[in-house]
Design brief:
The complex is a heterodimer of chains A (265) and B (212). Helix content of chain A is 28%, strand content 18%. Chain A is built from seven helices and ten strands. Chain B has 212 residues and is an all-alpha fold. A two-stranded antiparallel sheet of chain B has the order 1-2. Chain B is elongated and about 60 Å long. Classes of the chains: A alpha+beta (265), B mainly alpha (212). The interface between A and B is large, with 51 and 62 residues.
Chain lengths: 265, 212
């Protein structure tokens, strides 16, 4: 199975929000009632019913206001922290295509994925006691289609295709516009890539983790203490068995009895 | 209270019940917790009614563990929480306890090893309960705190579950005549003289004072 990448060329984003709408339509997600907060940011954040949105930021560039628009959704990590911490098999799955997919049928609403995610993506519904997030339209891409957001994008900001092709395209585009690729940590691969424009620091984008990686606490938890629990219990039980076989139990020394207890407390 | 020939009563019913509520809730939380941590052991959630049910069983047994932990701390604070003269020597001879039990410094109701276990249960038990409470409503906490909570929860389980195996061995087949102290409370005078002579002396003095 080929691996895929969703490429987000921020230099072409006009903030039209067609991706938001297409995502809602394809995944059958209801709209949310929101209120004006003095910003074009709408809806305010990802939610159980909003799996992608345009993040809106205003920055000051040499006395001029610059608008930053960024398509934000699950980054579909190669080694997803959410899958690593998920206690319920099948609730979060890394697929061969690279998409990280949740299955509400198996989700037990523990919220561990929300804490582990380096991109703060999964969202929880108290009513349903389960999480939801972008699936890279797994039902579409396994049918040879592109994700709904990519299909709807009118400017070519969003693209989707085989991993190698998309990486090549991202590099070429970054060179062309003098921008840079995010995330650019070779040790932390994702199946979503950004081309960010020239002259804008990635820290200017809200909710963009400048240094995404598997949280160290997750590694200690799952790679160290998890196996150690079995090693500790089994090891101690084994040592106890050895002690019993080699040395035997502590037999009480026989002494002449002084008679019964006087009153038993 | 009926007397038993040649025996003394080591624990009262409250101590035994509190101990077993703590032990039972810990073992059940451990069982359900391991069932969620090791996906190969899906047999555990399967026999208990699925992962969602197991999540709530884990939470409820954790709450019972937390309450009984407080009760145990209050109940055994005097007997197990305070190290006294002689405990230091006992700890230095701990290897001797395993390989040559003769000539150990005389212990009170609990020996220094049991007191160390008590303190491990107190420290890592409280850590388990606090991190568990954070995890129940994890979104109310900063993400750094939440991430540490999951890790410390797993670390505390590693420490306590390993030490628990020592406790089970020494409380059962490792020391014949001991388990009954936690089942119906009575141990032989020989057992008491051997394992906790200081306690037996106090016990006899109290009984004598009562008779006079």
């Amino acid at each position: 199975m080929a691996e895929y990448i969703k490429l987000i060329d921020i230099t072409k984003c006009t903030g039209c929000r067609a991706c938001q709408v297409a995502c809602k339509q394809w995944n059958g997600l209801p709209a949310e009632n929101t209120t004006f907060t003095g910003s074009y940011q709408n809806p305010p954040d990802l939610s159980y019913n909003t799996w992608t949105l345009i993040r809106f930021d205003e920055i000051d560039v040499e006395g001029n206001i610059k608008w930053l628009m960024r398509h934000d959704a699950c980054m579909h990590c190669e080694d997803p922290a959410c899958v690593k911490v998920c206690p319920s098999p099948g609730a979060l799955v890394k697929t061969p295509e690279g998409a990280v997919v949740h299955n509400p049928k198996y989700c037990i609403g523990c919220k561990a994925c929300m804490i582990a995610c380096p991109f703060n993506v999964p969202r929880y519904s108290p009513e349903k006691d389960e999480i939801a997030k972008c699936t890279l339209c797994y039902d579409r891409i396994t049918d040879g289609k592109r994700p709904a957001c990519v299909t709807a994008c009118p400017t070519g900001c969003l693209d989707f295709g085989p991993k190698d092709k998309m990486i090549k395209k991202a590099r070429a585009r970054a060179e062309e516009v003098g921008g840079y690729i995010y995330p650019n940590n070779p040790k932390y691969e994702t199946h979503v890539l950004y081309v960010l424009p020239k002259g804008v620091d990635m820290k200017a984008y809200s909710h963009l983790n400048p240094d995404p990686k598997m949280p160290a606490t997750v590694l200690w938890w799952k790679n160290l203490f998890k196996p150690f629990t079995l090693l500790g219990m089994g090891g101690v039980a084994g040592l106890a068995a050895l002690h019993y076989l080699i040395k035997g139990p502590h037999e009480v020394e026989e002494k002449p009895s002084k008679g019964g207890d006087a009153d038993g407390e | 209270m009926a007397n038993r020939e040649g025996m003394v009563r080591k624990t009262d019913a409250t101590e035994r019940m509190t101990h077993w509520i703590l032990a039972g809730s810990f073992l059940f939380a451990l069982f359900t917790g391991l069932g969620m941590m090791f996906h190969h052991w899906s047999i555990i959630p399967t026999i208990l009614g699925g992962y969602y049910a197991v999540k709530w069983m884990h939470i409820f047994s954790g709450v019972v563990f937390g309450i009984s932990l407080i009760a145990v701390i209050i109940m055994w604070w005097e007997d197990a929480g305070k190290f006294v003269e002689g405990d230091g020597k006992w700890i230095l001879r701990a290897g001797g306890y395993l390989w040559d039990v003769k000539d150990m410094p005389p212990s009170g109701k609990f020996n220094a090893g049991q007191k160390i276990f008590f303190w491990f249960v107190v420290v890592f038990g409280i850590l388990l309960v606090i991190t568990g409470l954070i995890m129940i409503n994890v979104l109310a906490f900063p993400v750094v705190v939440a991430r540490w909570a999951y890790m410390l929860h797993a670390m505390s389980v590693f420490v306590l579950a390993s030490f628990l195996m020592v406790h089970i061995y020494l409380g059962t087949i490792g020391n014949p005549g001991t388990l009954q102290a936690m089942l119906y409370g009575w141990v032989t005078r020989e057992w008491a003289q051997f394992h906790c002579p200081r306690w037996l002396e106090e016990h006899d003095n109290k009984a004598q004072a009562k008779q006079e």
